[in-house]
Amino acid sequence: MRHQPAFAPALPPAVLPARGRARTGRGASRTLAVRLAAALLPAGLMAGLFGAAPAMAQTADPIVSAIQERAADTRVTRSYTLSDLGIDGPVVLQGMDARRDLYLPVPAGVPLSDAAIALDGEYLRGDGGRTTLVLSVDGTPVYSRRLEGDSGSASATIAVDGKPRPTGFVRLGTAWSSVIGEYLCADERGIGNVLKISPKSRFTYSYEAGAVRDLATAWSGIPGSGSLLVAGGTLTKDTYDTAWRLGLALEAAGKRLVVKTLPAIGDEVDLSGLEVPASLRVVAPFSNFVGIGTYRIKDAADLGALLVLPGSPLGADVAVADAGLLTSMKSALDALGARLGPASAAFTEWRTKAASLGAATVAADEVSLQSLAGRPVIAVGGAAGGKATALFDSFWRTSLASGAVTIRAVDAAPLKPSAVSLASLGPAEGNLDVLARGDFVVSFDLAAATGGHSLPSRLNLDVAAAPGASTSEPVVAVFLNDVLLAAKRLEATGHPEHLTAAVPPYALAARNVLRVTFQRQPVSDRCRETPQAFPVSVLPTSHFELGGAAPGGDFLGVIAAMASGGHLVVPDAYLASAKASLPRVVRAAAAAGVPARSSSFEVAGPGASFRAAGAFLALDVPVQGITPKARVEGDRLIVGTDDKARLLDISGLKNVALVQALRADDARGIVWQSIGPVAMTPEKPVRLSRGDVALVGVDGTLTELSASGAAPGTVRVADTDGPAGTLQRLWQKSSDWGLPLGIGAAALFFLLLIRASYVRRRGS
């Protein structure tokens, strides 16, 4: 039995040293003191003397580590589908040989990591034979599969290499081959073998945020949906003016606009897609966001936490950095830093990398590159307006090789163009390998492409085709918005060949699609050659000639008149509901062809009206000086000004808007009126073309008609004024008067010859 030494104090067993463990030096003395105090002092006094510092250290260290881990992680992950790029329906490939290129935007010149394309598709194989799917990335085949069975899935996931793309696009090539017959001369025109690529196909990639060093790269990295952040509450006129212009620039660049407003304390935010990093799930206030769908912001620290978290619903691609937005952000981030206490130093480093916008000073006419929610954001001064929009036009965008610029003056182009090159309208591969059919497709915004000067009047297309094995000449056909402009047989000698076509006004729209289709005979005479593809090219010299005039007071006439600039008028109530009204204004302006850089912006007060002048677009504002063709009374719609001959009189409508083209003595414009108590915002682009009255719903244009009595699309000669319009109409109708005029001129010539001969004989 062990005995305690006589000099040892009588201590409880809980404070005795553990058996076999030596306590020496300062550590042993301090441990002994702590244990003596634990035995002899009250528990509360013990916690006050010794417990506070160790507990604080244990609490602060994990927070500091978590914050430092977040500061070191600067990777940005993007993910979007083909539907985000505006491809609403499936991409269908069928026939003996069909190919289609899809352009997926990425930051220009930035290395990618973990990039992959998840292709969602299915196939039908009713005609049997051999069917093959080949996928390529930037022209390099990376996937091949032979499809069998009557139908099935064609889904595939392919990796994308991480090399930088100077063009700002990853080109996904899809090729479909269907060979039905076993013999060389068999008929391959079966329609039962089809490949369908779903709009749900997704592209995911990551990149380092620090690799985006200039504004041009940041703009090129905006995915299919471009998000715009503005301050909460009621916006100033300058801020709203800048916001709608930037939103229109995003939509013109093919980005679907998503408007976000900075929430205030008490507002609810949707956190369904937010993934809180594991290291922050035990740190307040980040722990409040774990596993919930919506969250009501309790204080400024909650808002600050959302501003720095990657994947935050407040993350944006472009922000209107006015004084209200910057002040609210700075206050929220300061409150979060104070909440974190001992980790404030580490948070300052994270804040600098993840939310530098909250500490930036952005002048009214400045555009700078900042960070928000861990990703790059383009901060635009509150009064930059049309200057910033013109700066991001395709002409000046590539010159933004800087992280911050001050805009004093900017124009669309140094010279007024008389022609627009097809190569400047958008990304499209000019070289095609065509076996049976190949399409060159380019989309363009009318106002952005023409610089707001005039309309396209003629298309000059230069193409070249290599000779094939078949003796049949290839055919090229040109379509503008599915209207056939011209077609021609090509000699196919490898030399440039020219094709020209007049551009009729009825073929134009605010948003246009030009398609050049090449068709070849896939086999040679008597099937002596194996079918193979031969190259064709749309040459860079192809262009639109400008100088066309607008014929009419319908939607096309207003869009044409709006090309050089107009007036955008909204009620002041729109400024108090920016999140709901800005997408409506942007999509209405896109449908009307309002140029973002050369149009004026006006706000009508309560009950005030707008006096029609020049070209205009008025949303939910009464317009003086015009005679409407339809009117709205609450939820009642009346089309037709004559009470005895109304085209439509209906009530109970909702989620629709009345849009009509109106014309006065010196004004021509479009009036947009909401029907019902709640204003409707279209989710898809609105197309206005050949009528003067339209009903617009969530999915775009529902009905379009001509309330003036003329058939939609009819060219009304009286609507085109001036000598230039008269000459244009005469030239367009030259086929009607050309032959009679030629016969008459020939007859007059012979009469003059007979008369001269008679005079000579009589003189003799």
Automatic annotation (TrEMBL):
Which domain of life, per UniProt?
A: Bacteria
Keywords, in A-Z order: Membrane, Transmembrane, Transmembrane helix
Q: Where are the transmembrane segments?
A: 737-758
**In its UniProt entry, what is this protein called?**
Uncharacterized protein
UniProt source species: Xanthobacter autotrophicus (strain ATCC BAA-1158 / Py2)
